Structures are given as C-alpha cells and as structure tokens.
C-alpha cells in the first residue's frame, strides 16, 4: 500500500513539473515602431536585492535570446555591476547608456508573485483478482480489491513579469509585454521561459526580422 501511494505521488509530481510553463498574458507595440527599431539593446532588471539572482538570470537569458535572433544585446549587470546605477538620476543613467552605444533598453520588472495551495483529492482503485474456477458454472470466480490513495496538498507559485522596450534617444516606449510563469522550478528556468516568450513575441510583432 505504501509503495503504491509513493508511486502515485511521484507520478503526480512529475506531471505537475511537466505542466510548468510561461504564457504571454498581454503585449503592445507602438504603431510607429518599425522593423529595425531595436538596435544595440541593454537588458536591465528592475528588482530589489532579494531578487538579485532572478534579475541576473532574466537579463542574461533575454540577452541570449536576442543574440540568437541576430540582435546585439548585453546584460546590464555584466556591464555595470549589480549597483551600476545607484545614486544616478534618470538623465545621468540615460547619458551613461547612450555614451556606450546602446540605442534600446529592455527593462524587466517583477509585477507579482502569487502562491496558491491546491488540494488533490484521494482516489479509489478497484482491481479484479481471480481466486478460482468453477467447472459447474464454467466461469472464473473473481473478487475485487480496492486500493485507496489519500489526497494531498501542493503549493503552486506563479510569477508575473513586465518587459518594456524603450529607445534611448527619445525614451519612447516601443514594446511592452507581460508574462505569467507557473511553477518554474528554478530562477534559471523562469528566466528562460520569460526570455523565449517575450523575444518570440517581439519578433512576431515585426520588430525583429524573421
């Protein structure tokens, strides 16, 4: 019984892991933003010190996805360090970014993180078992065994992130996209899912050549 219960719970955990995904919730592109609007991109994560690992993963993964599409892109942490913009005004940051040749900035922020406790109810399995054969009735005698697997609770976590692309020269918003990730498992897998969803949508909207 314990072995059956363990196998069922392991299978359920594997199923939940396989269902983890990132979905594009909404997105927008400026009407005037044309193909080629994205030049040299600086990817900047706007998150507190508690989310430093997530910030770095997001910056690097988005930069990699853009590079895979032929766009020059760099993580802000790799260029300026984790505290590169500390104490600077918006104008000073803009001047610093422009002086290094960046024409676009992708800003990624964590909008929300939600946890939900979900109960999976127990199940009853009925299994037939042959116990003998009756010559008189010419049929098998079968009894049915019932196996009960108790219910269990799991905690699902979802992350909502906002990605916004600005032009450096005029500070115009070129693109905005929001994603929701369900049970990503790790910061790295979360960042990878977001990066793929956002960059694919940017390309779909024509800002990157197909």
Low-confidence stretches: 1-20
Q: Quote the beta fraction.
A: 35-45%
Helix and strand composition category = alpha/beta
Mean pLDDT: 80
- Taken in chain order, the helices and strands follow as HEEHEHHEEEEEH
Radius of gyration: 26 Å
- What's the end-to-end separation, in Å? 55 Å
Q: Main beta sheet, described?
A: 6 strands, mixed
Tally of strands: 8
Helicity range: 25-40%
The shape is elongated
| Count of helix runs | 5
Widest sheet: strand ordering: 1-8-7-4-2-3
Task: Describe the SSE topology.
Elements: H1 2-19, E1 21-29, E2 41-46, H2 52-68, E3 73-75, H3 76-80, H4 90-99, E4 104-120, E5 123-134, E6 139-149, E7 152-167, E8 173-182, H5 187-204
Parallel strand pairs: 2-3, 2-4
Antiparallel strand pairs: 1-8, 4-7, 5-6, 7-8
Name a few traits of the molecule.
alpha/beta, 32% helix, single chain, elongated, two-stranded antiparallel ribbon, 8 strands
What is the structure about, briefly put?
The protein is an alpha/beta fold and 210 residues long. It contains 5 helices and 8 strands.
Fold and architecture overview:
It is a single chain. By secondary structure, the chain is an alpha/beta fold. Helices cover 32% and strands 40% of the residues. The protein contains five helices and eight strands; from the N terminus they run H-E-E-H-E-H-H-E-E-E-E-E-H. Strands 1-8-7-4-2-3 form a six-stranded mixed beta sheet. Helix 2 runs parallel beside helix 5. The longest helix is centred in the first third of the chain and has 18 residues. It is elongated and about 85 Å long. The chain starts with a helix and ends in a 6-residue tail after the last helix. The N terminus is likely disordered.
